[in-house]
């Protein structure tokens, strides 16, 4: 990925249009404290409209705590400064077989109801002249997960980011997750889970390679 300044872009402009998170404006890069104030100010009347007594010592700090959770934790993937820099290293080991990072803990948030999506991501690629530090695969997953999401877009965002960063289409991503919008409301189904996948390059055309990836992640 060509990024000589080392700075993250203002939005997801480097992704294909259909994969971009629907930003209404350029994501704010103001200091955290400045971003917390308006978020907390919005949450305060929302809590009051539910009949909660915000003068109670247990609830008085809730609007700010929730705002802090959104800005610094749940939705930190909306801040372009958190986009991981994926550094590549020369493949001096001449390793050209399947490389799999499985069971990456995934915590995201449903953009329809703002409730958690919890699961695992499995990613794989075929190294060529370069390899990537393994922790960077996890960081890419977390960057796109930590924002309001739908699982289908999240899966493809991770795959596209890895394709661009690794310089190869030979990338596979599979996500299995539980959605609390399904489990705790509506149908209240606590037994189902959602699987999504994206296969690029040889993973899309080589059935044996895809099956080996699925075997290694226990599918």
UniProtKB/TrEMBL annotation:
Domain (GTP cyclohydrolase I) ranges: 48-217
Entry-linked PROSITE patterns: GTP_CYCLOHYDROL_1_1, GTP_CYCLOHYDROL_1_2
Annotated signal sequence range: none
Major enzyme class: hydrolase
InterPro entries linked to this entry: GTP-CH-I_C/QueF, GTP-CH-I_N, GTP_CycHdrlase_I, GTP_CycHdrlase_I_CS, GTP_CycHdrlase_I_dom
Keyword list, A-Z: GTP-binding, Hydrolase, Metal-binding, Nucleotide-binding, One-carbon metabolism, Zinc
Record carries keyword ATP-binding: no
EC number of this enzyme: 3.5.4.16
The reaction(s) this protein catalyses: GTP + H2O = 7,8-dihydroneopterin 3'-triphosphate + formate + H(+)
Region (Disordered) residue spans: 1-37
Pathway: Cofactor biosynthesis; 7,8-dihydroneopterin triphosphate biosynthesis; 7,8-dihydroneopterin triphosphate from GTP: step 1/1
Keyword Zinc: yes
Binding-site positions, Zn(2+): 110, 113, 181
GO MF terms held by the record: GTP cyclohydrolase I activity
Quaternary state and interactors: Homopolymer.
Family recorded in the similarity comment: Belongs to the GTP cyclohydrolase I family.
Stored NCBIfam families: folE (TIGR00063), PRK09347.1-1 (NF006824), PRK09347.1-2 (NF006825), PRK09347.1-3 (NF006826)
Name of the protein in its database record: GTP cyclohydrolase 1
Organism field: Hymenobacter humi
Upper taxonomic lineage: Bacteria, Pseudomonadati, Bacteroidota, Cytophagia, Cytophagales
Gene from which this protein is expressed: folE
């Amino acid at each position: 990925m060509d990024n000589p300044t080392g700075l993250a872009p203002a939005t997801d402009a480097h992704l294909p249009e259909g994969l971009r998170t629907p930003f209404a404006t350029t994501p704010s890069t103001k200091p955290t404290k400045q971003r917390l104030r308006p978020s907390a100010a919005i949450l305060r009347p929302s809590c009051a409209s539910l009949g909660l007594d915000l003068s109670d010592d247990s609830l008085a700090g809730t609007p700010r705590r929730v705002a802090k959770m959104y800005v610094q934790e749940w939705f930190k993937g909306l801040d372009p400064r958190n986009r991981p820099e994926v550094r590549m290293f020369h493949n001096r080991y001449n390793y050209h077989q399947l490389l799999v990072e499985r069971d990456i803990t995934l915590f995201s948030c449903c953009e329809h109801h703002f409730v958690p999506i919890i699961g695992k991501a499995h990613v794989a690629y075929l190294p060529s002249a370069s390899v990537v530090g393994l922790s960077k695969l996890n960081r890419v997953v977390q960057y796109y997960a930590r924002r309001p999401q739908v699982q289908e877009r999240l899966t493809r965002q991770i795959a596209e980011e890895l394709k661009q960063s690794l310089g190869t289409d030979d990338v596979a991503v599979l996500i299995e997750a539980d959605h609390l919008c399904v489990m705790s409301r509506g149908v209240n189904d606590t037994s189902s889970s959602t699987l999504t996948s994206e296969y690029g390059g040889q993973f899309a055309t080589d059935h044996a390679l895809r099956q080996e990836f699925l075997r290694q992640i226990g599918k």
